[in-house]
Structure formats: C-alpha cells, structure tokens
Amino acid sequence: MGEPPGSSIPDTNIKVSGGAGGTSAVFEDFGEMGRLTDDIGGDALVTAGKSHKYLVDPNVVASAVLDPVGAAKFEGAMLGALDGPKGLTAVAGTIELRSVALRAAEAGYQLADEANRQLLADLEWTLAAAAPGALPAELVGILGVATGSALADYIKNGGDLSKLKDDEIAALQRLIVEHPGLVDAAVNMAPGMISNLQGFPVDLQQGAAEIGLLMPDGKANVVGKGIDTDTYARTPPQNLGDIMAQLNHRNDTAQQDGNTGPNIDVRKVTGPDGKTRWIVDVPGTKVWNASTPGSNNTNINDLGTNIHGVAGQDTALQQAIDQAMQQAGVSKGDPVMLVGHSQGGIVAANAAADWVHEGKYNVTNVVTAGSPVGLVDMPSNVQVLSLENNGDIVPHLDGRNNPDTSNWTTVTFDHQTGTVGGNHKMGGPGDHGYTDVAASLSNSTDPSVVAFNQSLANNGFTTGTSVETQQYYATRVPN
C-alpha cells in the first residue's frame, strides 16, 4: 500500500507490504479467529451435552406427578433449546463449520502464495538448466544493440569487467539499475546452470553453498576499540531515523584507514526502568573480492561473506557479532535488536533466526537496509523491518521477495541515481536514500510501520534515557 500523507520525503513512491497491516496478517487473523471460534463451538457442544441431564433430573421426574402439564412444557422447552433447529447443539455445529472455513481460508492462502513463488523459481531454474548458452543472443535482440552487445561481451569475457569499454560498462549499469528484476531472474537461473554443469540438481542456497566452498570463511577475531564518543553514539535513539543514522555512522567508521576502522558496535540502552536493552549495528560489504585459498584476505566484510550469508550459513561475521555481544556483556534474556545494511542485514537476519531458534539471545527486532533476506526462516516472534530501494540490485541477490507475514514489514521506495553504488549506499540527510526514508517512517501512519515502531518502543529501544556504545574491529583468520 502507498505511504499515507505525512511523509517528509516527496515523490519517492514509498510502499509497504507485510507486517501487521499486510495481506498475510489478515489471513493469519482468519486462522486465529477460526481457532477461537473452534473453542467457542467446542464449549457450546460440551454445555449442550451436559445440559441433557436435566431432562431426566429426579426432581423434574418427581414434579411430573404433581404437575404433568408443567413438566411436559419444561421438557419440551428444554429439548427445543438444546436440540431444536435453533438450539444450542445446532448453533455449536454451525460455529464449528465456520471455524473450519476460516482455518481453510488461511491455509489456502498460504499454500497458494508459496506455490506461486516456487513455480516462478522452478521455471527460471528449468530455463537455465535447459538452455544455458541460448540467452545472450536473445537478450541482444530484446535489449537493443548497445546494451545487448555489452552484455554479450561481458559473458564472452567470462564476467571480466576490465575487458569492457567504458560505454559498455555504463550501458550494463543502466540496464541493471533500471531493471533490477533481471537480477532476480539471473540469481534464480544460477542453480539451474550449476545443476547442468555437475549433473545433479541444486537449489539457490545449495548453489550458493557450493560457490562458497571456493571462498574459505575462516573464523572471527574481534578486538575491542573502546567506547565511541561521537554524538551519534552518545545520543539515545528516539525513533527509526535515529537508529538508521547510527548504523550509517558505523558504516562510515568501518571505511576508515583502508577499511580497518570499527565495523561492529554494540549499544547498551538503559531505560527509565533501569533495565538494559542492546542494539547491534553491522555495516555492509567493504571489499568486493573474496577469501579464496591463498589470498590472505582478512577483511570480514567481503564478497565471500555475502555468498555464505545468502546460503544461510553461520559466517565468520556472525561469529564476530556473537563475540562482540559477549564482550559487551549482553545477557541471554536482554532484549536485542540487530541492524544491518547490505551484507550486514543478511548476517543480522540469519543471526536473529539462528539465535532465537537456539535460545541463545532474546532478539526481538531486526532492521535491514538494502539486504537480500527473503530466504531467511525468521521466527514469528521476531519483528522485522526491511527497507529496499527499487533501483538497488543488492536486495535482489537472493532472487526472492521478502515473506509477507504479520511480523515482517517491507518498505520499498524509489531513489534512482543511475549507478549501482549510488542506489545502494545508505546516504545522508536530504538525498532521499535509506537514512532519509527511515527518518520519514518515524512519523508514518501506515498500520504495519506503526506496529513496528510501537514494537521498538515496547521493547525499550526508542525510549532509553542513556546509551553507551562499545565499538569493535572484526577480522577473518584461517581455521
């Protein structure tokens, strides 16, 4: 649904799906109503059954001797109330039938929704497996000479951008930022191509895992960098905009000194009740090469982490976040929110799902920006907000839309810069990117966004009276 009046960001085509106001939530309400109705119907049947004993109650039978007409009227009225066309037994049966219908509606919606998603993925997989070499020539005709020729050269050169001319690179960049859906198709076709090459089928996550074998992930090494004294780090967040601004600050520090600055922070938020909540910030990719064997790449924010993250694997970066949280003093029962941009969002979502399933941490909220997280199996008690720029190709790298569930809200918007990097960057005040849109959502009247913002307040993340931010530098070391 479109963003209601009141947004401070003009002409960005903000749309909200999922969450408390989403379609899935309505059908989940049907299911819950069906379950409640089933309880009511069951109680009514039990009451009807128990009430039949009064028809043969000794006192009623004895009274028939003294007042046979009155006793007969009582028996007739009681039978009608219990077993008549509009009696309690019939009403209970009707309630049970409605319960079945409501629960069937919920199940039918979920089945159809999943079937449609799987059908599209299967079609793309089959196309790639059947004809992996036929696409470039067809695309040349569809896309036009300049873009089609650039794409054909890119494929012919084995994906080496350095062999393309500047105008060819520009043409390819325009193609994917203006039509990011092509990335979904390419990603979903990749497993089919891998299956064709190796002779047995794999799905997207299995394909990513196989590619990840070429990029050893190693293990994490985390070094504390002390308390951050920046204004962003010392100011308790009051809304979603503040939360995203702090993530943007950590994103900036991670790029300092050749990408060797603090790249994880753990914020200790103390509320007016004296209790502690924690916000963990995880910035995105900083190095676009991978930790191939012998490369000695120690940067944990690299391409390899992306591949392992899309595969749903426990990455060295996820281990680093865990170590940072332990060093900061996070307890098992403390409310935790994980916030990440790009790669940081993938790892944050995977970590939340893993840790809640394992009972390791009490992750209550996750915020992602420009992250491919549609494959994450998130527990229903974790509230998720995903921000996605329609021109940003990175959220398409998993080839899936985010789940449309009552606990997962996705906000899409338009911010077209004409470049891959420009569309993906977090941005700053006034540029209508991720940070600006997050700030505008702080005042949103959309039901799903309102519910998510309320969960932030209820869990104490935006109602704190003080905050202390511990910063960490994480690297990858060999196993």
TrEMBL record:
Residues 310-392 form the GPI inositol-deacylase PGAP1-like alpha/beta domain. Residues 253-262 have a biased composition (Polar residues). GO terms for molecular function: hydrolase activity, acting on ester bonds. It comes from the Bacteria. Residues 253-272 are annotated as: Disordered. This is GPI inositol-deacylase PGAP1-like alpha/beta domain-containing protein. It comes from Segniliparus rugosus (strain ATCC BAA-974 / DSM 45345 / CCUG 50838 / CIP 108380 / JCM 13579 / CDC 945).
